[in-house]
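Sharing a chain and its predicted structure for anyone who wants a worked example. Both blocks are below, sequence first, tokens second.
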Amino acid sequence: MKKPRAREYFSIKYCFAGEEEKIPHVLDSYVKNQLDLSDVNRVLELSSIKQFFDKYDHVNGWSDDCYLKNKELSRNVEKEVKSFFLSISENKIVSIYDACEVMFWDEFWKYFYIYKVYEKISMEHFKEIAEGLHMSPNKLLENKNLVEKFDVQITEMLKTPEFGAQFIVDFYLRKDNGKTKYYWPKGLTREDKYNTVKAYINGDIVNANILDLIMNGKSKNPKEFEVDVKLKHLAKKRYERYWDENTMPVIKHETGINVSFSPENPDCEVVFSAGVITAKYNSNWIKDNLDYPTLLNNFIYLFAYTDGYMRCSLTAGSLKQGIIENLFSTQGNGMYQKGQSFELLNALSNIQMHGYVGVLNSCDIYLEDIIKWFFEVYIKNEFGANGFICNMPEKSDSILSKYERVATVMDGETKQFKLFCEEGEIDRELYEMISGSVRYKEIPSLIKNKYAYANSNEIVREMHDMFSDQCMLSYTEKTGSKYNTFFELLRLENVKPEEIEEYNFDELNWLLERGVVYVSDGMLALNYERIWILKELNDKGVICLQYKDSDILRKLISEGEIRVESSLLSESEWEYFNYVLNKSEFSNGLDLRNRYIHDTNPLDKRHQQNDYIVLLKMFVILVIKINEEFCLQDKISKKGVDFYEL
């Protein structure tokens, strides 16, 4: 057992919630028979006290004699709990639960199952009592014995769309943490679940997030419940009707994007204000710098498709979601998790591409030709990479022909690059024997040590302590709640170790031992080299190793706390490619490659043009990443050393 720290009292769920001096008074009343043991709350209060002593061997402010005396008084309270729950009759179950205070609900259900109170319930009254107990589907299905006893009744309840459909969808389609196990009644068939969900979609009252899950979620167990294209289509139509019929001015947040290319604009200006992104670019500057390298570099330095470490800026993994975004985003199983920031920046990048292509076309320059030049001329002349062939579509081709051609060429370039990485050259005969596409996560790298990822619970804990607004280290009596994170507190204030709240001493000492912070002249100071590593991992999820020479990073790699992988795309990048281009990884993927390859594309010409712009954007990002590979390889070969060669 252990001594509880102050903050732990608030997670025990006992009635005294840190006011431990209540314990002797409760126990004294119990010994003197002054406690009303017909009251469920008093019984569960006693039970909580017993559990408290089972868990802790010391109470702050108590002498050893006081602790032992009260612990001894609590030894027999379990018999009171047993007696109370065994005495509950069928007609009293609901009234007892109604009288139970919220803080004791978990305890009530625990003993409800331990002492098999449900055995008192008759078949004919089960539904009535279950409703009186406010038993939601997850509560009904959490106990195996209960489900087996009332299989027929629970099956019928779950087949009611208003009661069972949302749980069925949540259970099979929502991304979960796997903490709770549920037991389905044997009488509820796969067809029953499907029909229940279908009836829910056709009903008058629906939840938009549930419809989103049906449209985009991926079943964790298709043998038990699967969403076919017909159900997805039905949900999509209902989803559209839902938003046509419902407006929510209270939480609606207007957003917009304005992009302009004009001779009067500054070279580059991007402003975000009142939910609207306004981006301005000087068209004359672009027209005065029409060499192909500059036109490609504009995607980095004007449009910020990547950051300074060549990480794609448009992936969901590169954008931190806020509390509100997490609250309203749909966390579906197998779904790409994206928020409003992701949607805004990707919409911006698409409009940037659309406007930029228009400016180039007015100068009789075509992005497809620039991409072809990159593969067939630039990397050959600059890096000696021979053999790349890039057969782009003709200018006069229809939009559908262009789309299918560019999608095919993208596949070809990834296969050619993979072959170049493996063989050091492109043997055309060997290339022509390779069938199928290369998965984006499997495209190799020319660089042995390219990406670094967090690989230990300790590193994740350091990140949480320094950058999470849920960590209590940021609070001190001197500064109150002025700072959201511990990092902000130490960066902007002079803080002495003793000024940290007492309940955070253990965590602070751990951070000191880990070398994240240290004491200098009596003040807490940040180890900025380690902080840089943690912040990169926290904000972006990945470190691009060849841009930062760090002894601390080398040490963390050698100790296994940071893992190193080598591929053309980082994890968040290949996930982003999969989301946009196919559905191999994510059930809500846009599928922009496969839809056109397999002739299931939209017929609307404007829709096709917008999709083509997105496809070109993805191809440009691929070009930027491949160019980075050759640049890094050239840099390493000239220096003769890889920073992280262990």
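Comments welcome. The first strand starts at residue 256 and ends at 262.
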